[in-house]
Amino acid sequence: MSGLGLADPERENALLTGIIEAISAGPELGPLAASVARLIVAATATDICFVHVLDDSDGALTLAGATPPFDCQVGRVRLALGEGVSGWVASRHQPAVIAEHKEADPRYRYFPELGGPGYTSMASVPMASRPAGLVGVLNVHTRQRRDFTDRDVRLLTSIGSLVAGAMHQARLHRRLAAREQAAERFAEQVIAAQEAERQRLAGDIHDGITQRLVSLAYHLDAAVAALPPDEVAARELRRARELTDLTLNEAHAAIWGLRPPVLEDLGLADGLASLARSIAQVPVTVTGTDCRLPEHVEIALYRIAQEALQNVVKHAQASLAEVELRCDASRTTLRVSDNGQGFDLAARPGDETSYGLRSMAERAELVGGRLTVASRPGLGTSVTATVPGRSSR
Which of 5, 154, 163, 265 lies deepest, with the highest CB count within 10 Å? Predict the structure, then answer.
């Protein structure tokens, strides 16, 4: 038997239309390779088709698409350039045809999972295009002997060239997705490390400083009780006792700041509400709706709100502050604003406020977002963190 049987224009048009639809379906490499394999088998009256794609190192081929029953082997079969017939085609950028006795061909390598002995003839062509270069290798196999003609090889090569650009874009999309996942994992690890260090510091303060302050308070109480109330020493000891209580309260506040409410249980909106209630110096209102985000993103937004409110308390001289949380499909926005004295950003480089703003900006950037600040002297300040929309947990 010879010829691929694509002389019928209707079959050629059906193949081209199917390939265009497969390319247009989306940027994922796996579905594209699987669709191309099915289309080629249907159009060429071959029995199976394998689509091998160069990996990201360009040093090996990975099975990216196959027709049943070998579709279960996708992602599992890998061969280096120059290895097997497909590796030979990839390294030489030349087609290869074997009509029979594959095992006798020095280029052939047996893959038990791909059922080689059950298929007699094969044609293997490079998938390449001028802008994309070599992308992979396209193989077709038949159970019965078939003499693949030059026209057959040219047709398969043309098909390979047609899909090479789309395969190249799919590879780039896969690389980009992998980088985004790596960046998100890095952000998770950084934030987890920051929170672990905060937990350690909170534990050190609680187990060390606060316990010593409590012990100091007991000793001061005992010393005051042992002296006449009107003596100067007693008055100074009572003053020291008041300072001890003040320092103890500040230590407790520091511990609470280092160990916020568990966002996993409360959610970001309730965590922000709890944060607002902890600010005694300025009334803080919280508006918006809750939206569950990845834990490291919620922690980053919580810390941004915490830093912004600390700036309000320390610098704004405000009588009111507001925390607003808004979510939609594309982004989550956190805004902390106040009616305080405001400031000129350009006129205050390097001061404590600028340091706090840099810290908030770094947190936003770490989770793929950005921070904007709007402030004018006498007109208050607004700090807005915007992060890309993420799927809920």
Answer: 163
